[in-house]
Specification:
Elements lengths: L2 H10 E10 L6 E9 L5 E4 L1 H8 L1 H15 L8 H11 L7 E7 L4 E2 L3 E6 L6 E6 L3 E2 L6 E2 L11 E6 L8 E4 L4 E4 L10 E13 L2 E7 L11 E3 L4 E13 L4 E8 L2 E7 L2 E9 H10 L5 E2 L1
Parallel strand pairs: 9-16, 9-20
Antiparallel strand pairs: 1-2, 1-4, 2-3, 3-7, 5-8, 6-7, 10-13, 10-15, 11-12, 13-14, 14-19, 15-16, 16-19, 17-18
Length: about 290
């Protein structure tokens, strides 16, 4: 059903790769997100929570460098353990504290570029503008739905994104005590589509701003396009909501592989939440960014 549409949408949908490091560990955690380009001028849209990782990445590392600088005076002293704990509390560092995050945009643009990011004041939406690049590597651009009355419950749509980080072109540099991108390893991550039907539209005091889908948006698909069989974009994957079904089973006896067991289960329905195309178009117009309708 979506074969031809996927061929089109894949041309202007791109992954955002992140590598992350947490306090007290040298392990590198790869993560992904998605964006899609809306014109031929290097302008893409993604989620605001994705853009925040691009904007505030230096903030985490600056805090960690300040911690390291102060701890250096004590690390060879007998009181090193106590001072380390004191400084961790001072800088709010725990084992789950993010201390470094780096990003990469494979197959988006070439050359030295800078990013201009616009964050929507209310909704989970951001515009990412690549400026100063020498060449674009994506093809085509999104065609945003013009007739918004077509966004109705029961319509089957598809989302495309990059939920499974399989890239491996990164390493830990012991000399600098930092994570970095490398020239070896896999540089790509496969795209993954998921379809579903529109279940409800989501509104607030300003009107309809979201589209609920019967299937979840997968982690890493945030910022990916929601589109129909013609490749026309209806919205953007933003989040997944967990709806309690009420079919709870508490301490129920079952037979599993011939053995009687007591189990409990609290099922939820995971549904996707997408930013409505109306919100995307309004924000692009407000920032005077060219886009196309269909």
């Amino acid at each position: 059903m979506f074969v031809e549409a996927l061929d089109q949408v894949d041309q202007f949908t791109r992954a955002i790769h992140f590598i992350c490091r947490y306090h007290g560990s040298a392990e590198i955690i790869p993560q992904t997100a998605t964006m899609f380009f809306v014109n031929e001028q290097g302008c893409a849209v993604t989620c605001k929570h994705v853009a925040d990782n691009l904007i505030y990445s230096d903030k985490f590392y600056t805090r960690y460098l300040q911690f390291r600088k102060e701890f250096r005076y004590f690390e060879r002293e007998k009181v090193a353990a106590l001072e380390k704990k004191r400084l961790e509390e001072k800088y709010g560092l725990r084992s789950d504290s993010l201390i470094r995050i780096k990003s990469s945009f494979p197959d988006s643009v070439n050359g030295d570029y800078r990013l201009v990011i616009h964050r929507h004041p209310v909704y989970d939406l951001a515009i990412v503008q690549f400026q100063g690049y020498s060449e674009i590597k994506y093809k085509g651009f999104a065609r945003l739905l013009k007739d918004e009355t077509k966004v109705r419950p029961g319509r089957t749509l598809c989302r495309l994104g990059y939920p499974f980080p399989e890239f491996s072109n990164y390493r830990f540099n012991k000399d600098t005590d930092d994570i970095e991108w490398s020239q070896s390893g896999r540089i790509s991550t496969p795209a993954f589509p998921i379809d579903g039907i529109i279940t409800r539209q989501v509104a607030d005091q300003n009107g309809i701003f979201g589209i609920e889908m019967s299937t979840p948006g997968l982690k890493g698909q945030s910022g990916g396009p929601l589109f129909d069989t013609k490749g026309i974009v209806y919205g953007m994957q933003s989040a997944t909501q967990h709806l309690h079904l009420g079919f709870d089973q508490v301490n129920r006896e079952v037979i599993s592989e011939g053995i009687r067991k007591r189990v409990s289960n609290f099922p939820f329905l995971n549904v996707g939440r997408c930013v409505h195309v109306r919100i995307i178009k309004e924000f692009l117009r407000a920032k005077k960014i060219k886009f196309y309708e269909a």
